[in-house]
Write a structure and sequence with these properties.
5-stranded antiparallel β-sheet, globular, 4-stranded antiparallel β-sheet, 322 residues
Length: 322
């Protein structure tokens, strides 16, 4: 499952609870696209991993340390210069986007109080960690994006920070019967596609779950919905909105046998025939899911490699015998 905006909402809430008023005691950059922050606050010392990896962008609280290079990269040195011992005063998620913004208060060279913001964009190959000042100017980023790379948005020191362009979706906060009737219900696609293609923060898997809860086949056409089904779908969207607003999250991983299949911030009804394991935090879900997924992937790859070796050996033996 993708790390969608709903999971990020759960994550933002968790980070707020753990790191508001915490101080940055250590800033490290173990990988070229990854930061590991050590923070001390009311809840003790904890580490926060920020990864802008194109293949696996992640943000989560971790108990695991990582070795850092002997010489810190330039981006890491810059962060240390500005915000070492800085205090986190706010952690937010704009809309239901896959973005986490961390506002840090620190003292400058003159002893004056200043604020900086770290913006973590969790968007697949476009993921980035961007450091901006009070005037919304980019000081630096872990990845530089020039106009040769993207004609839509430059991410370079000295440029004004501009949020990633939207895709015409609405937030669940803006949900209304009128919007439902005039926008979602007139789309010439399946119900599942209409849901995740119209509302920010919802992944295809979660869209299917919403359809399942509403007793609707997610692959059926929007035009085929009866008035009762339309009302049921709207009701489930309102229910999801209320769950997010009240922070009624229940982080979990769904297992197919011993292999992790999906994860989510809410319990999935459509996977009732599989095993669901709940966790106390979404950070534990993310760290556990991807660690286990990597193990399963490696075992499968070794199995494929072993089959090739055995097959080649048998073919050589057959050629010798003939």
């Amino acid at each position: 499952m993708a790390l969608d905006g709903i999971v990020v909402a759960s994550l933002a809430k968790e980070l707020q609870e753990n790191f508001t008023n915490a101080r940055l005691s250590k800033i490290a950059q173990p990988e070229k696209d990854e930061l590991l922050l050590t923070l001390k606050g009311p809840n003790g010392q904890k580490r926060l991993l920020l990864s802008a990896s194109a293949s696996l962008p992640l943000v989560y609280i971790t108990g695991t340390n990582k070795p850092s290079p002997m010489t810190a990269p330039n981006f890491c040195m810059l962060l240390r210069k500005y915000i070492s011992n800085g205090r986190i005063i706010e952690i937010t998620q704009p809309g239901m986007e896959r973005i986490v913004e961390i506002t840090i208060e620190h003292l400058n060279e003159l002893g004056d109080t200043c604020r900086k913001k770290m913006v973590i964009e969790i968007m697949g190959k476009h993921s980035n960690i961007i450091f901006i000042d009070e005037k919304n100017m980019i000081i630096d980023s872990i990845k530089h994006i020039s106009n040769q790379v993207s004609s839509v948005r430059e991410v370079l020191p000295g440029r004004t920070y501009i949020a990633p362009p939207g895709k015409g979706k609405i937030s669940l906060n803006d949900l209304s019967v009128e919007w439902m009737e005039n926008t979602l219900l007139v789309k010439p696609v399946s119900v599942q596609k209409a849901v995740y293609g119209s509302i920010s923060g919802i992944s295809p898997v979660l869209a299917n779950e919403i359809c399942y809860r509403a007793d609707i086949d997610g692959d059926s056409a929007v035009a085929s919905l009866t008035p009762v089904q339309q009302s049921s779908l709207y009701g489930e969207l309102v229910r999801l909105k209320n769950q997010i607003e009240t922070h009624a999250f229940s982080p979990n991983i769904i297992y197919e046998g011993k292999a992790p299949k999906e994860f989510g911030a809410f319990t999935f009804s459509m996977f009732s025939d599989l095993t669901t394991e709940e966790y106390p935090s979404i950070s534990e879900v993310l760290e556990t899911f991807y660690a286990q997924k990597e193990v399963v992937t490696r075992i499968r790859q070794k199995s494929v490699d072993l089959r090739h070796i055995v097959q080649n050996a048998l073919e050589r033996k057959n050629m010798t015998c003939s």
